[in-house]
Design a protein that fits this description.
mainly alpha, 8 helices
């Protein structure tokens, strides 16, 4: 199963290589430690949105280009490619068994306070 951090890291590495920038130069320009940059690309750490947008500025791309599509991520993580299949899987887990996903948000918050 692919972790979201790994997928984002792979896309950062791909964009960096497209621009023919080495990891050390990217880290220097983005004001990130070189070893931390390597950990980001390997998906070993979760980066903040601030760091993601900083990297986007250096890599000349939008954050959306570095994030996987939700459907692809759900398929990689849960083995489901559609919202319906994912919700069916959630309904079968014991953690969510008491939660009616059709309730409005306010009612759900009151139920689990």
């Amino acid at each position: 199963m692919a972790n979201l951090s790994v997928l984002v890291g792979e896309r950062i590495r791909l964009q960096r290589k497209r621009l023919k920038i080495n990891q050390e130069k990217l880290a220097l320009i983005a004001d990130i430690d070189r070893s931390y940059m390597g950990r980001i690309e390997r998906g070993e750490v979760n980066i903040t949105l601030d760091k993601l947008y900083g990297l986007c500025a250096v890599l000349q791309c939008e954050a959306a280009e570095l994030l996987p599509l939700r459907a692809n991520w759900m398929k990689n993580r849960y083995g489901y490619s559609s919202k319906t299949n994912c919700l069916n899987a959630i309904n079968t887990t014991s953690y969510y068994s008491g939660l009616n996903l059709n309730q409005d948000k306010a009612a759900s918050r009151r139920q689990y306070r």
